[in-house]
């Protein structure tokens, strides 16, 4: 993975990546583990995968923007917690727009490069967007809310206007 733009990470994800990198470097520097069922080819493949992951993590850490919340302007971008409504079903979902491979928290993460992330990046509250899923279907979503990750626990949930309630 080569990145030229900043990669938004939570401080926890940054720490996890640093810990994973340290463990991979230690494993790569040590003698290969010998087991009865491990062949030379298996060890070569494992070492190659470790080195690829080391390069990937180093690239992520080099371009990391750690814990700096984007502006609280309601625009969908990495580092924002988005609440969307799937227009065809009416279901809502809240997730972090961030680096899926790095974040492991209490909230679902979608990459800005995913079809949903690509469709929503730059959207404002109330904007409707559409994206295609792998089977070719078109999915329509409405951005209900976008708050910086650091604010999402304290922010009230997005409220939709009441309809049919005599308002």
UniProtKB/TrEMBL annotation:
Which protein is depicted? GreA/GreB family elongation factor
Which InterPro entries does the annotation name? Answer: GreA/GreB_C_sf (IPR036953), Tscrpt_elong_fac_GreA/B_C (IPR001437)
Q: Report the GO molecular function annotations.
A: translation elongation factor activity
Q: Which organism is it from?
A: Saccharothrix hoggarensis
Provide the alphabetized UniProt keywords: Elongation factor, Protein biosynthesis
Name the Gene3D superfamilies for this protein.
Transcription elongation factor, GreA/GreB, C-terminal domain
Could you tell me the superkingdom of the organism this chain comes from?
Answer: Bacteria
Q: Where is the Transcription elongation factor GreA/GreB C-terminal domain?
A: 75-144
């Amino acid at each position: 993975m080569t990145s030229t733009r900043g990669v938004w990470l939570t401080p926890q994800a940054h720490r996890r990546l640093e810990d994973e990198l340290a463990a991979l470097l230690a494993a790569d520097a040590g003698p290969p583990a010998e087991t009865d069922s491990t062949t030379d080819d298996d060890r070569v493949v494992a070492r190659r995968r470790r080195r690829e992951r080391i390069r990937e993590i180093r690239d992520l850490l080099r371009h990391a923007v750690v814990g700096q919340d984007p502006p609280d302007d309601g625009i969908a971008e990495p580092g924002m917690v988005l609440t969307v409504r799937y227009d065809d079903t009416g279901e809502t979902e809240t997730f972090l727009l961030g680096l899926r491979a790095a974040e492991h928290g209490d909230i679902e993460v979608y990459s800005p490069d995913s079809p949903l992330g690509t469709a929503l990046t730059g959207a404002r509250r109330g904007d409707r967007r559409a994206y295609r899923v792998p089977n070719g279907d078109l999915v329509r979503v409405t951005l209900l809310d976008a708050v910086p990750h650091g604010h999402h626990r304290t922010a009230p949930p997005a409220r939709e206007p009441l309809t049919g309630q005599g308002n």
